[in-house]
Design a protein that fits this description.
- By secondary structure, the chain is mainly alpha-helical.
- It has 20 helices and two strands.
- Strands 1-2 form a two-stranded antiparallel ribbon.
- Strand 1 and strand 2 form a beta hairpin.
- Helix 1 packs antiparallel against helix 6 and helix 10 runs parallel beside helix 15.
- The chain is globular and about 70 Å long.
């Protein structure tokens, strides 16, 4: 029987917003999957410098929506989107046209600022264009568009890199952003945003309250350990793969294994763990994620087992040992994400003071802010030490320069195990505090 009130029918603005989101994600992920490679090869940053630049970019793009979301409510969604895609189109184009350090940093600032407007506006449109009964369906469509756009962007990135060069990926991204700008200008009609937004002062005060909450921030930092490993798909994996396997390798396509596994398994896994506590599900994810890093580190073992750089796959074709290790390691990352991601928001909301759950959930993205900053900065130093830029090596160094490259993944496996252990401690301490409060409340 069809449940009363449920529908897949949404206003025109909703579908236009999702089309815009698809173009924006296709542009962003096409650029982002090879950003670290581009900044080192074309712009001239060292691995360490690239780590800092990409770390600040990738972390601030998650922090800035806290403020640009409030500003969008004041400007109106349509005007904010026009500004956003003008910044994105210009930023991507600038990044490709003049690959110098100063211009690259300026271009990334434009992209960060433009991108920080888009997500809260599109998700806000989805919320305001649907009622309470149909909101879950609206967001399922929104997240489907996010994943389709990300998948397409990374898929297109490889042929552009191989056939035309890294710079042309930025031109492709600029084209996608400009198409989105045209769609906004001619098709997106503003929706009512009055009476819903917060002032910048209210937003800042809310952020400060969240940062002072030790219990909530401890959880945010622990779970950041998970995402610091997952985001090595963008920080370490592209350079690691191209330097060790060669230019014919496909880091762009390997990165798509993660969302593919999530899409296939998130519904059955979420159903499987529905009766266990959120913290237990998060713990399973944190326990699996270090094994993903350890699996990637096994490429030297596979090389010795295969007797060379070709591992036969059922006699049908062969793959490089590093590619095989990455396939299984990235698949494990996707599996871990299906356990952690759906239950994290549920558990995080329980750590908020009563009546402030919505405020705290709004700042759950802080875990990605900290994760990206740590993930990219640490990656720069580890690549420099264990998997250096071949252009910095003398010919006689090449034979031994990469023999310990897999050590990078030991470091991230350690981060994963540490995060799991800290979650156990966190749960024990929180349970102890809650029991004491309960006893004190009963005695009053």
């Amino acid at each position: 029987m069809k449940e009363s009130g449920l529908s897949w029918k949404f206003p025109r603005e909703f579908w236009v917003a999702n089309l815009i989101e698809l173009f924006e994600r296709a542009a962003y992920y096409g650029m982002f999957i090879v950003l670290a490679v581009y900044l080192t090869r074309e712009v001239g940053f060292t691995d360490v410098e690239t780590g800092w630049v990409t770390g600040l970019f990738a972390s601030l793009i998650y922090m800035a929506p806290t403020f640009t979301g409030a500003l969008s409510d004041k400007m109106g969604f349509r005007q904010a989107l026009i500004l956003a895609f003008a910044l994105l189109s210009g930023g991507y184009l600038l990044l490709g046209l003049w690959p110098t350090k100063g211009v690259a940093v300026t271009a990334l600032a434009f992209i960060m600022l433009g991108g920080s407007f888009v997500k809260p506006i599109i998700s806000g449109t989805a919320a305001k264009a649907s009622d309470e009964k149909n909101r879950a369906r609206a967001y399922s469509i929104f997240y489907m568009m996010v994943n389709i756009g990300a998948f397409l962007g990374k898929t297109i990135a490889k042929p552009l890199r191989v056939e035309l060069g890294l710079r042309y990926i930025n031109f492709y991204a600029a084209g996608m952003a400009f198409v989105a700008l045209i769609v906004v200008y001619f098709m997106y009609r503003d929706i009512d945003t009055t009476g819903k937004g917060k002032s910048l002062k209210e937003t800042l005060n809310g952020l400060l309250r969240v940062l002072k909450n030790v219990r909530f921030m401890a959880l945010i930092l622990i779970v950041a350990g998970f995402w610091a490993i997952q985001h090595q798909l963008y920080a370490t994996m592209p350079k690691y793969t191209l330097r060790l396997v060669g230019e014919h390798a496909s880091p762009e396509w390997l990165a798509n294994i993660n969302p593919l596994v999530v899409v296939l398994l998130v519904v059955p896994i979420t159903h499987l763990v529905r009766k266990i506590s959120p913290v237990s599900s998060i713990g399973i994810g944190l326990l699996i994620i270090p094994f993903s890093a350890l699996t990637i580190s096994l490429s030297p073992v596979l090389t010795r087992w295969a007797g060379g750089n070709h591992v036969s796959i059922f006699g049908l074709f062969s793959l490089h040992p590093i590619t095989v290790a990455l396939i299984f390691g990235i698949a494990l990352q996707g599996l871990a994400e299906t356990f952690l991601s759906p239950r994290f928001l549920e558990y995080a909301s329980k750590q908020a003071p009563k009546g402030e759950e919505g405020l705290y959930l709004g700042y759950s993205h802080l875990t990605t802010f900290f994760a990206n900053l740590f993930a990219f900065v640490s990656s720069g130093y580890l690549l420099d030490k264990y998997c250096p830029d071949p252009r910095t090596l003398a010919p006689e160094q090449m034979a031994t320069a990469y023999e310990h490259a897999h050590y990078i993944w030991y470091f991230y496996a350690g981060i994963g195990f540490l995060a799991f252990l800290l979650l156990l401690v966190y749960k024990f301490v929180c349970d102890y505090i809650d029991r004491r409060k309960a006893v004190q409340a009963e005695s009053v």
